[in-house]
Write a structure and sequence with these properties.
Length: about 600
């Protein structure tokens, strides 16, 4: 029997101890909800008639209380390429439920926005809070309490975390997450990034930029780089909410449809009506979240999940701390090179052995808890198998026991680097995180004067004016959750990459977020306390010297006397209206810090 890694065991014990009171309270509520059962048998005749009026051939069986009933919560819209395939999922789920002797209804829809569309725009200021809106909408969808289990249709950045948070409010129900899969590989992410830099430098026009972007984002499915959306899909396997091997199967294929139908059948089979009751509150325990953090580090995943995993865990009464991420990162091998920390995309990663190989190798290395409950059964070993569809049947076979391309995927014993892709930084400026998996070692320590901006447009204007010519740390503040919803600042990436390419030593420090595709420029992000809360970042002036040290995990003000200064203020009125921002005033006012998940509720 494989021995668990000491740090893995210690961090898990620490999370369990820290969460004892809140987890027990959550599980008590779930036990009470289970004891009450679905309300449909107790509804008035009028209530039941409302619930079943449009259910067609399922109506009589529902009225007689003879079937297991499955709720579908969908984030479908056809503006998001990753979510467009969900258009036809409800009918696949309904047919599969009927074939299994049950029934299914779309319980409700949740909004889904694309951060790729809103980068650098006002809409990005709604992005983080859309996660909390999705959680609230999930609760509304399931509030009729007429379902025995649920399936959740979502992929992208805030959608999966929001659905997970909402699902845990109904944690007495089984939950299976059904992905859509990645789009086919198009223009390589590396070539796309080069054209973006050329455009930012004025070397090519918008027509060349548009042609490159359209060649990269060209069909249905998830964007193929390893950003937040694909990190979400990885987590759903590591944490046991997907069917094994489901994450990176392309849309509109027989295998994809077979996995969707099987997900519906599996959800019904896990309900309290049968002998294999597995509610989501039992799946998402402390060990599952620790496994998710290991997966995040081993794959070099998105920094956004340092916020989302904390919020997701808290919805189940589990308290995660960024130090948990840091300690696990110190002992987790980086096993994957997928853009932006490599040239491959997720299709190449999947072909090289993918998540099945990675989970199996981490289990053998003692870096994952093997005994977690999952929707596939007890034991993470289920997730080392690959799904196949042949002769009209879905089955699973043993996955790869070695990497099929060691330039993309390596074993834990011979990784790309011995530690994970994330680093926590602490010091006199506060607490922050950095994604280091794509940053060359020579840039892990940057010590330089700061240039301070109050929004990303100011920084881009200074770049265009030729002002950013020396080594510097670009500070963009008043970008935290309370200030303006903590937008991603990914549109700064081409500018910063150009400065680095010129030989300047540069870094970004911000209380905002960076994209899940954060790349080769060191970025200390999610700085807490944020500027609007009076954090030290609000005391910096141009020319103050900072040290950003990803080697020692430090974020330090080197200029004397900074902490004795008064905090500066900023005119934030431009963030308060337009593009729906006025509707989110309550979210900004009540947002918690990034270290607690930056959530609107539970603070």
């Amino acid at each position: 029997m494989t021995t668990l890694n000491d740090t893995l065991r210690r961090v898990t014990d620490r999370v369990i101890e820290r969460s004892e009171t809140t987890r027990a309270a959550h599980m008590k509520v779930m036990a009470a909800s289970r004891a009450k059962g679905p309300a449909r048998a107790h509804l008035s005749c009028s209530g039941q008639a409302h619930a079943y009026a449009a259910s067609g051939e399922d109506k009589d069986r529902l009225a007689q209380g003879q079937v297991g009933h499955l709720g579908i919560v969908t984030a479908y819209n056809d503006m998001l390429s990753a979510h467009q395939p969900f258009e036809n999922y409800p009918e696949v789920v309904r047919k599969a439920a009927r074939a299994a002797g049950g029934s299914a209804q779309v319980a409700g829809g949740v909004p889904a926005m694309c951060d790729g569309v809103t980068q650098g725009e006002a809409g990005m200021e709604l992005s983080l809070f859309s996660r909390d809106v999705i959680a609230l909408a999930t609760a509304v969808a399931l509030s009729h309490n007429t379902f025995d289990a649920a399936v959740f249709l979502g992929v992208c950045d805030k959608i999966v975390p929001g659905l997970v948070i909402g699902a845990q409010a109904f944690g007495h129900l089984p939950a299976v997450f059904l992905p859509a899969g990645p789009m086919a590989s198009g223009l390589s992410n590396d070539e796309k990034a080069k054209v973006r830099q050329q455009f930012a430098a004025g070397e090519v026009g918008r027509d060349a930029l548009m042609a490159a972007e359209m060649a990269a984002y060209h069909g249905p499915g998830t964007c193929t780089f390893y950003g937040t959306a694909n990190t979400n899909q990885m987590l759903m396997e590591f944490m046991g909410l997907h069917l094994p091997g489901a994450s990176f199967v392309p849309p509109n294929t027989e295998l994809r449809e077979a996995l969707t139908a099987e997900g519906a059948r599996r959800a019904l089979s896990l309900s309290a009506l049968g002998n294999n009751y597995t509610p989501v509150c039992d799946v998402l325990d402390e060990k599952a979240f620790v496994n998710g953090i290991v997966g995040l580090n081993a794959t070099g995943g998105s920094t956004n999940l340092l916020i989302h995993l904390v919020a997701m865990a808290r919805a189940g009464g589990i308290i995660l701390d960024w130090q948990d991420f840091a300690d696990l990162s110190d002992v987790t091998p980086l096993m994957a090179r997928v853009y932006p920390n490599g040239l491959a995309d997720v299709n190449h990663f999947h072909a090289a052995g993918g998540l099945g190989y990675m989970i199996g190798d981490l289990l053998r290395a003692g870096m994952l808890h093997p005994d977690t409950k999952t929707v596939a059964g007890t034991g993470l070993e289920h997730y080392t198998a690959d799904p196949i569809y042949a002769e009209g049947k879905l089955s699973w076979k043993r996955g790869a026991d070695k990497s099929l391309n060691d330039k993309i995927l390596r074993p834990a014993a011979d990784p790309f680097q011995p530690t994970g892709g994330l680093k926590r930084l602490t010091g006199t400026l506060g607490t922050s995180v950095m994604k280091v998996s794509a940053v060359a070692p020579e840039y892990h320590v940057i010590e330089a004067p700061v240039r301070v901006f109050h929004d990303q447009d100011e920084a881009k204007a200074a770049f265009k004016n030729g002002e950013l010519v020396d080594d510097m740390i670009v500070v963009v503040r008043f970008q935290g959750p309370k200030a303006n919803g903590m937008p991603e600042l990914h549109s700064l990436t081409p500018m910063l990459s150009i400065l680095q390419g010129r030989g300047q030593r540069v870094a970004l420090v911000t209380d905002g977020r960076m994209s899940g595709a954060s790349g080769k420029v060191p970025a200390a992000i999610h700085v807490t306390p944020e500027a609007l809360d009076g954090g030290p970042i609000a005391k910096l002036r141009d020319g103050d010297v900072l040290r950003v040290d990803a080697t020692r995990g430090e974020l330090t003000i080197l200029t004397p006397g900074v902490l004795e200064r008064e905090v500066v203020s900023a005119d934030l009125s431009a963030y308060e209206t337009g593009t729906g921002r006025e509707l989110f005033a309550a979210f900004r006012a009540n947002a918690g810090p990034a270290t607690a998940g930056a959530a609107f509720f539970g603070n």
